[in-house]
Amino acid sequence: MMAGSTDDELDIPYYEIPPTYDEFLKNHLIPNKPCIIGPSFTQSWKANKEWILANDSSNENLQHQPKYKPNYMHLSQQYGAAQGQVARCNKRHFTDQERTEMSFAEFCAKWQEDDGKPSLDYLKDLHLQKTFPDDKFYTVPDLFEDDWLNEYWLQQKGDDDYRFAYFGGHTTFTPLHADVYRSYSWSSNICGMKKWIMFPPGQESLYQDKFNNAVYDVRDVDTIQFTKFDQAKKIEIYQKDGETVFVPSNWFHQVENIGAAISINHNWINASNLMFTYASLRKDWNDCKHAIEDLQDSMTPMEFLQECQNLLMVHSGWDWRIFLNMMAHVVANRVKQPNVPIHQPDLAWQMDRIDEVLNQWKQDEPRLIDYFEGNDLMSVYIQLRLDISSIRQK
Ligand SMILES: O=C(O)CCC(=O)C(=O)O
Ligand SMILES: [Fe+2]
């Protein structure tokens, strides 16, 4: 399962039978360590029955052969109307790939033409469940139920969500990155295989330059720009048809498809990685402040803070308001229904994690309470504190 390293610390556990929630919490969520779970975990999904066909055309150039391939016709008929962003994998656009908007039907026609041969088009981050809310083509596995990001966004009247489907041809790939808001992700393969290259956190300086630009493609690194890249410890994983990978917070990773591949994945946040998420918000915030520091003298401190929030929203897709609202929303839900989701850490432990983040936030930002007051957020903040105490008293 693992190659490319002889370091025991870098061994990734493989669970043929899914771990219990308590094992998963103790060994993966809290210590922030990856794992792979075998196909029994998701075998009941409709996607695993209706979206795929046996792959009988073996490609002798491949060391790893996918067992299944997409049922292109069925997918195109069922979901053809969905609109998505198709990445051109040979065209770099800053830190990502160039993307073109097209319908799923248009994409499927090209994908089927390539049918397992090397291909450049990769339909990513498709909000398929949001587009077809009544089609239960998968269910969130119980280990991943405690997901504050989607719990919050789905109750904001469908504004946004972090539930995706990926459809790509052989050799399509996702460049090196760490996930949005330093969330966790989970990724289940429906068909095809994925080669993951993962970097345990703490060695960012080996693959980021002094301007924080990261390596784009680990297979083609400019060693003049990234002189120490070779020293980075990395893990290679081959994720086969039906398997699920848990990607911890803050782990940089690059992913390459082997054969025509389909996967479903979510980004998610909960009490176990909330501090990572806060740290990412703080970093984005500092970047925004530096970007417009010239304006600082021409404004009051509150005006400057507000301007930075606007920039944060444009650049990172969120701001302090959203972060506070997400925590307040989830804690209010736990007051009303403490046992939803069913699988979650002890509630008092979760409240401690939120407290830690709130205290850190206040310490980092002396004007935080002024900002809440100036933006109608004081009542949200007070209610959050009250809800935390009421959960603790139970
Ligand atoms: O499958 C891919 O191409 C990328 C998936 C990914 O980056 C993730 O699940 O975090
Ligand atoms: Fe990712």
TrEMBL record:
Pfam family for this entry, one: Cupin_8
A GO molecular function held by the record: 2-oxoglutarate-dependent dioxygenase activity
GO biological process terms, semicolon-separated: positive regulation of translational termination
Superkingdom of the source species: Eukaryota
Domain JmjC per the UniProt entry, residue ranges: 129-285
GO CC field: cytoplasm; nucleus
InterPro entries cross-referenced by the UniProt entry: Cupin_8, JmjC_dom, JMJD6_ArgDemeth/LysHydrox
Database matches in PANTHER family: 2-OXOGLUTARATE AND IRON-DEPENDENT OXYGENASE JMJD4, ARGININE DEMETHYLASE AND LYSYL-HYDROXYLASE JMJD
Name the record gives this protein: Clavaminate synthase-like protein
Native species: Mucor ambiguus
